[in-house]
Design a protein that fits this description.
Strand content: 15-25%
Order of helices and strands: HEHHEEH
Helix content: 55-70%
Strand order of the largest sheet: 1-3-2
CATH topology: Arc Repressor Mutant, subunit A
CATH class: Mainly Alpha
Low-confidence stretches: none
Radius of gyration: 15 Å
Mean pLDDT: 95
Distance between the termini: 31 Å
Length: about 80
């Protein structure tokens, strides 16, 4: 999510390289994000090669912002 938020539209190969994960692991995570409507996916062909591009949806941006706020509150909890 951080990569998509920072980079905007990003293809599968770039996400794989950036996250240093296997095709299967990355596909599983991306599918869960897609099922939650946090990302949008477009599959097409460029010079006869399949390419899949992902970008964060408005709902995904809101969810990620809420996630970061929650993490920040947890970090700032005083005993």
């Amino acid at each position: 999510m951080t990569i998509l938020l920072a980079r905007g539209k990003t293809d599968f190969a770039t996400l794989k390289k950036q996250t240093k994960t296997s095709d299967g692991n990355l596909s599983t995570h991306l599918r869960k994000l897609e099922d939650a409507s946090y990302i949008t996916v477009k599959k097409s062909f460029v010079e006869r090669k399949p390419i899949t591009v992902y970008w964060i949806s408005d709902e995904g941006k809101r969810a990620y912002s809420n996630y970061l706020s929650t993490i920040e509150r947890l970090i700032n909890i005083k005993d």
